[in-house]
Amino acid sequence: MHEINFIVIIVFSVIVGSFLNVIIYRTPIVLHRRWQTTNTENDHHPFTSLLSRSCCPHCHRVIAWWHNVPLLSYIWLKGLCAYCHDPISWRYPLVEICAGLIAVTAYIFFPLDISLVGVLAAGWILLALAAIDLRDGLLPDELTMPLLWLGLALNATHLYTTPDMAILGAMGGYGVLWLCAIAFRFITKKDGIGAGDLKLCAAIGAWVGLPAVPAVILIFSWMGLVYGILYLLLTRQNKNTPFPLGPWIALAGWIVVLGKDNIMHWLNING
Ligand SMILES: [Zn+2]
User: Fold this and answer.
1) Is the pLDDT of residue 242 over 80?
2) Suppose 165 and one of 100, 109, 161, 171 were both cysteines; which one would form an S-S bond, judging by CB atoms 3.0 to 4.6 Å apart?
3) Is residue 78 located within the same domain as residue 172?
C-alpha cells in the first residue's frame, strides 16, 4: 500500500512539473507584455494566456497531448519537436525530474496527510521560482506572494510552526536579508540582493518560523558563495558578473522545510 501511495505521489508530482514548465516559460513573457504594453512588435510568442494550449516555440504548432506526456514524450521523441524536429530544451525534462525529487523527499520527511500536501505545494512553487530566476532573473510576486499567504494560512492551524512564529518568521526573513542587502551595498557599492529575494525569504520564513530563519540564510549564503566562486573560476567571467540568488534561497528553503528539526539541532539553534 505504501509503495502505491509513493508511486502515485511521484507520478502526480511529475505531471505537476510539466504544468510548472508552462508557468516557468510563460510567466516572464506575460509580465514583460504587461510592462511594455505599447511595444508588441517584437512579441512573437503565439500563446494568448497562461491557459492556452502548449505549442512548439520554434514552429508554433500546437503540441498534441500524446506528444506532451511528462518525461516519456521527451524520451520517445528523442528530445526533438514531432513536427519541425527542432531540439526541445533539456530544461523541460529537468523541471519534471526535479518535481519528482520534490515528491520523493517530501514523502520521506512527512506523513501522508495535509502536511505532505502543503509541503508539496511549497516545493512546486519554490521550483518554479528557482527556474524562472535562473532563466530570466525574475522572482514574480505572482508566485512569492501566494507562497507567503499559503505558509501563513497553514501555520494559522499550527501545521508546521505556531502562528506567531510564522508571522515573525516572515518579518524576520525579510528583515534579516534586507540588512544583508544594505551591508552588501555598503561594502561593494552594488546591488546584489533584489526585492524579489527579500520577498522569497519572507515567504520561506512564514513556512519554517522565526527560529529556523537563520538556518535558511546560513545555508543559502554558503551554497551561493561556493557556486559564485566555482562559476567565476569555471566561466572566467569577471567578478562583477551578477548571478541569481533566488535558486539558492529556494533550495535552502526547501532543505529547511524538510529537515528543520534536525538542522536546528545541528546548528544548536533552540526552537
Ligand atoms: Zn516545432
Assistant:
1) no
2) 161
3) no
